[in-house]
Amino acid sequence: MNNSALYAFNMFGDTVLRAAFAMTGNYSEAEDITQEVFLTLHSKPQSFETDEHMKAWLLRTAINRCKNYRMSARVRRDQPLSEELTDKLSCEFTPRDTEIREMIAKLPEKYASVIFLYYFEEYTVKEIAGLLGKSENTVSSLLQRGRKKLKMILVKEGYDYGAQRV
What we know:
Elements: H1 3-24, H2 27-43, H3 51-71, H4 83-89, H5 95-104, H6 109-120, H7 125-132, H8 136-156
């Protein structure tokens, strides 16, 4: 890899992997998407103003790859995570995070991406709007609707979140 792609991978490889997993619900696909993102950066070097700009480009590229994946015929949304894959993720996610990420992956992509970026990557609505090329009002609406849909999935799955808010 060129220095820029290697640097990006070292800085943001885990972040891109987490984003891809949150949106696909499939660890092996998330790994493939992550690899594709960094290969794209390697083969088509970009110049970034800051590390935050680089991170935004990587996440945007990962989101686009996840959209392609979710539209493909290969998608099998109901495939549960194996224990081996859950173990790989345990250092990054709590069991609760993993459960919720699997449920986020069941949402339509437009909701999954904003929920992931807002709650897990802690971007603001304004930053998400810039990342996704949408207005702040649109992102706020997607976030609100996504929360409602996620809550319905959580209730359907029997998840007891008690006083915790989604």
